[in-house]
Design goal:
In chain A, 43% of the residues lie in helices and 14% in strands. Chain A is an alpha/beta fold. In chain A, helix 5 packs parallel to helix 9.
């Protein structure tokens, strides 16, 4: 059992873990579909956009393409997804507007109060592949305050590459073992653990583990729960365990 | 007169402007002086430490020495200042402890409430040459929450070099003209203005303008108040003007 007295920092994944990207994106697409009177496979559109971002991010991580941030990636992928959809017609400025939906992601209902409570005992920050301004804007939009906000946009590497977790620890001025990564995604947690972080898994209904090479999905967590130091069915249970 | 509706972000200097570095450092030194029963020129010690940091930072900025953050600079300068003082005897770990005082700087009394009020209308962040963890720790120590926290530690350049302000604007995803730099220091504000930022000056009793080349000091502000878009005698007056 992890000794929680050794933990100084809780580093949170936010895309999917704190913010409900799919619910927000699908609602925005439904509104556009209604206005334009078109047929759109909304689930597929949202998925292609999100996972297309991770595919392009993999190219950034491998230096196959120059380093660009999540906003720039989202915007490029959006063009592809619109082309693929076949039915959606949007001007350049309408595409920019749609792309800005990532700055207004709605938080999961149980997240804001949990984060506020955890800050009483820990330094609580996001550690995200999303752009820094997405983190700032979505947090402000949902009334969530953190003790700071780290985006891989200004770290040496992007998650789940080890340099991201190690550089975050340097900025935080603590040892990796004093940080607990909190996420709904196995890959993030297992990569953080490899660099010495402690880990906390929280269930989120829509999050699936994706194998990027085969584009196949499995239920989260994709490893036994015992691989994590702490786990919770939701933010309430996880918070309760982290504050004992 | 600046149109405040055009301003999205207030970027705050924190060392000296939000946190009373001199008061905190001098109190810590008085305690050490009392315990050791020595004579120490506390005003000079605190000044040499603070301005020695800026002198070494100038060498980082000019690439005369490799890039190190404010914590590492503070620690190196502390050794010099202790040697110069002649009377203070501290072990390596005691020096590390004393160096950590920069993570416990006390906020000026009028700062926390002002920042909280300003967040209702603006995105409010620090933009500091201090290390990112100093910003996080001092804010948490004083119960101050921000919408995010930018340290030059991870920007292309350190203030007052232009790349610092421009990179911060990029991370914030806004134009420089949509940011207002808020500080008690003329040099910071005038440099920010050169890159397109708007400026707000706030008086702090202990802050003086320093000419680094001659090590001479003058009253702040060292330019006419009219050079700034907004100014206030204190945080209460400045906040009132920024929220009209």
């Amino acid at each position: 059992m992890v000794d929680l007295d050794q933990i100084k920092v809780l580093a949170w994944d936010i895309g999917g873990t704190v913010f409900n990207w799919r619910g927000t994106i699908e609602k925005e697409l439904e509104e556009i579909q209604r206005k334009q009177g078109i047929e759109l496979d909304i689930f597929k559109f949202a998925s292609d956009w999100r996972y297309g971002m991770f595919d392009m991010l993999a190219k950034v991580r491998s230096e196959e393409i120059p380093r660009i941030n999540a906003d720039q990636i989202h915007r490029k992928v959006l063009d592809d997804v619109i082309d693929t959809s076949g039915t959606l017609s949007l001007s350049e400025s309408e595409r920019d507007d749609l792309n800005s939906v990532w700055h207004r992601l709605e938080a999961w209902d149980d997240a804001p109060a949990a984060i506020e409570r955890l800050r009483e005992r820990y330094t609580v920050i996001p550690l995200t592949v999303l752009s820094w301004s997405i983190g700032v804007d979505c947090s402000k939009f949902n009334g969530i305050s953190w003790d700071g906000l780290i985006s891989c946009e200004f770290l040496r590497q992007y998650k789940p590459d080890p340099g991201s977790y190690l550089h975050a620890a340097e900025l935080l001025n603590v040892a990796p073992s004093e940080i607990m990564m909190c996420a709904a995604h196995t890959s993030d947690l297992m990569a953080a653990r490899e660099t010495g972080y402690r880990t906390a898994f929280v269930y989120r209904e829509i999050e699936k583990a994706r194998d990027i090479s085969t584009n196949t999905f499995s239920e989260e967590p994709s490893v036994p729960l015992e691989c994590f130091d702490v786990h919770g069915q939701d933010f309430v249970e996880l918070t309760s365990k982290l504050l004992t």
